[in-house]
Amino acid sequence: MKILIIEDEEEIRESIASYMQTEKYVCEFADTLNIAIDKIVTHDYDCILLDLMLPDGNGLKVLEKIRALNKQDGVIIISANGSLEDKIKGLNIGADDYLAKPFHLSELNARIYSVVRRKKFDSKNLMYYNELEINLQFKVVKVKGKEVLLTRKEFDLLLFLVGSKDMVVSKNAIAEHLSGDMADMMDNIDFVYAHAKNLKKKLTEAGCNNYIKTVYGVGYKFQV
Amino acid sequence: MKKLLNKTLLYYLILSSGVLILSGPCFYFLIEKLYLDDVNEAVLLRRDEFFKKNLPDLKIEEISVWNKFNRDTRILADTVTASKDQIILQIFYDEMVPEWEPYHVLYKNIQVQGKPFVLMIRLNLVESQDLMLTLTWLYLGTLFLLLLANFYITRLISSKLWHPFYDTLQKIEKFNLQHQQVPVFEKVNIIEFEKLNSAVSKLINDIVKAYQIQKEFTENASHELQNPLAIFRNKLDLLLQNTSLNTEQSEIIQSLYQVSGRLSRINKNLLLLSKIENKQFSDTERIDISTIFQQVIPYFKEQALAKNINIVFDKQTTKLYIIANKGLTEILINNLLLNAISHNKENGTVTIVLIDNSLEVCNTSANNALINDIL
């Protein structure tokens, strides 16, 4: 899997690449509009992370170029401007997703995973981890072939953790992921604990191994 | 506040009335003097005529005949006491009209066939009251005509001469900074209006530019702050992957996460405030408060659940419409709900009441209520 990170801030590029390495993604970089356009013309990527404010112009030009070349690369805009107009504009030109800075790497990872999955025609909607089976299309979880009834939030939480398998996902990232647009309002993230506790309980009661590990008080990790 | 043209008309009315009122008496006295001079001249002319043509061959026995045919030039017996040889004012009763009328009269001693007589020459004066009345009517008529003419001239000026001014005024009134549409003024060949238009155009262009710069500054500030925040957060995400963390270090990381969340919230709020200050939320629409509450409340269920708070929203069918910006209204309602939950006690309630064009969000708390005056 190849990812192109178009971002002029070096620290952000490095952080993303460092996180993605563990996911076995190959990362390439572009810090200006021109380099980015050169790269997309000569290479294909599974996913492109696009910062809009580049030193030599607006990142939307890259998006226009990709669409003009009729390429199927998935594009996620990572912008410092979180305004609604900006978001709508980006999605209208053909971005697959829009993530406002500052974001959690686990959130970015989940978005990349989702974009890449949608782009692939042979996308498998079923994921297996030993006795655990997750159906992405119907949002159903089965343990040893038997369905476990999860709430919407519990399902989202499980999927989020699975998306960053073997990585520690912070409670804050989970809180923001689960509360969506309301994330900015939250100053109390205790509800994450309640959801995680319920999810773990439901899975273990159905006979599933405890794959969801609590990492001190900071976060959770899905590990098979 | 009066319209410019009405004001012009008013000034003109005052000015022309003033001029007419002041000039009235002068005019009156001048006319009267001219008239009296004319009368006096006529009296003296008759005297001269009498002396030259009639007196030399006038006989005493003819005097009664003379008096019979001459109403205003009479020969009287020498018994007149009035002063002689000068024109004086006297009132006579006129049987023809009939009323008392003023006359200018000249008495003069004469000799007819050696006997003394008195010659009386008189001329009827037009009554000064009549003169005054006629003049007043004349003046009122003139004033009326002047005003009428002025009214139509002003109207003409208004529609022709002042048209560019009103056009410019209307366009400035319609100008809205948020829509960024610089008005285009009509071309005029009047120096003052052309100057006005170009000055206003320059002013508007400057304002639009300044507004643009300010907006860009907001965006840049956002960019500048969001990047370090993103780096901060991402580094924490990476640090968290370190397998050799102990409890103490994890706790530090957790509190740094909280700080990063707070910083991000503060930054977003500051941006929101500056956008409100810049009036970037000027688009308004008709919104039902009740509908927004119904949409928003589910998002707070989790926050409420953490403290076991019950959110009560009765009368959900009551509609309360306001004209406002939708995004801002949602933020306001979110803040109200969030605060009602944050500043609440365990097992408390949040009650939302919508009645009679009023909205109340009530919370239970162990603390005292806020003081209305300092809000």
Automatic annotation (TrEMBL), chain A:
<dbReference type="InterPro" id="IPR001867">
    <property type="entry name" value="OmpR/PhoB-type_DNA-bd"/>
</dbReference>
<dbReference type="InterPro" id="IPR039420">
    <property type="entry name" value="WalR-like"/>
</dbReference>
<keyword id="KW-0238">DNA-binding</keyword>
<feature type="domain" description="OmpR/PhoB-type">
    <location>
        <begin position="124"/>
        <end position="224"/>
    </location>
</feature>
<dbReference type="InterPro" id="IPR036388">
    <property type="entry name" value="WH-like_DNA-bd_sf"/>
</dbReference>
<dbReference type="GO" id="GO:0000976">
    <property type="term" value="F:transcription cis-regulatory region binding"/>
</dbReference>
<dbReference type="GO" id="GO:0000156">
    <property type="term" value="F:phosphorelay response regulator activity"/>
</dbReference>
<keyword id="KW-0805">Transcription regulation</keyword>
<feature type="modified residue" description="4-aspartylphosphate">
    <location>
        <position position="51"/>
    </location>
</feature>
<dbReference type="GO" id="GO:0005829">
    <property type="term" value="C:cytosol"/>
</dbReference>
<dbReference type="InterPro" id="IPR011006">
    <property type="entry name" value="CheY-like_superfamily"/>
</dbReference>
<protein>
    <submittedName>
        <fullName>DNA-binding response OmpR family regulator</fullName>
    </submittedName>
</protein>
<dbReference type="GO" id="GO:0006355">
    <property type="term" value="P:regulation of DNA-templated transcription"/>
</dbReference>
<dbReference type="Pfam" id="PF00486">
    <property type="entry name" value="Trans_reg_C"/>
</dbReference>
<feature type="domain" description="Response regulatory">
    <location>
        <begin position="2"/>
        <end position="116"/>
    </location>
</feature>
<keyword id="KW-0902">Two-component regulatory system</keyword>
<dbReference type="GO" id="GO:0032993">
    <property type="term" value="C:protein-DNA complex"/>
</dbReference>
<keyword id="KW-0804">Transcription</keyword>
<keyword id="KW-0597">Phosphoprotein</keyword>
<feature type="DNA-binding region" description="OmpR/PhoB-type">
    <location>
        <begin position="124"/>
        <end position="224"/>
    </location>
</feature>
<dbReference type="Pfam" id="PF00072">
    <property type="entry name" value="Response_reg"/>
</dbReference>
<dbReference type="InterPro" id="IPR001789">
    <property type="entry name" value="Sig_transdc_resp-reg_receiver"/>
</dbReference>
UniProtKB/TrEMBL annotation, chain B:
<dbReference type="InterPro" id="IPR003661">
    <property type="entry name" value="HisK_dim/P_dom"/>
</dbReference>
<keyword id="KW-0812">Transmembrane</keyword>
<keyword id="KW-0808">Transferase</keyword>
<dbReference type="GO" id="GO:0005886">
    <property type="term" value="C:plasma membrane"/>
</dbReference>
<dbReference type="InterPro" id="IPR036097">
    <property type="entry name" value="HisK_dim/P_sf"/>
</dbReference>
<dbReference type="InterPro" id="IPR050428">
    <property type="entry name" value="TCS_sensor_his_kinase"/>
</dbReference>
<feature type="domain" description="Histidine kinase">
    <location>
        <begin position="220"/>
        <end position="375"/>
    </location>
</feature>
<feature type="transmembrane region" description="Helical">
    <location>
        <begin position="9"/>
        <end position="31"/>
    </location>
</feature>
<keyword id="KW-1133">Transmembrane helix</keyword>
<dbReference type="InterPro" id="IPR036890">
    <property type="entry name" value="HATPase_C_sf"/>
</dbReference>
<protein>
    <recommendedName>
        <fullName>histidine kinase</fullName>
        <ecNumber>2.7.13.3</ecNumber>
    </recommendedName>
</protein>
<feature type="transmembrane region" description="Helical">
    <location>
        <begin position="131"/>
        <end position="153"/>
    </location>
</feature>
<keyword id="KW-0472">Membrane</keyword>
<keyword id="KW-0418">Kinase</keyword>
<dbReference type="InterPro" id="IPR005467">
    <property type="entry name" value="His_kinase_dom"/>
</dbReference>
<dbReference type="Pfam" id="PF00512">
    <property type="entry name" value="HisKA"/>
</dbReference>
<dbReference type="GO" id="GO:0000155">
    <property type="term" value="F:phosphorelay sensor kinase activity"/>
</dbReference>
<keyword id="KW-0597">Phosphoprotein</keyword>
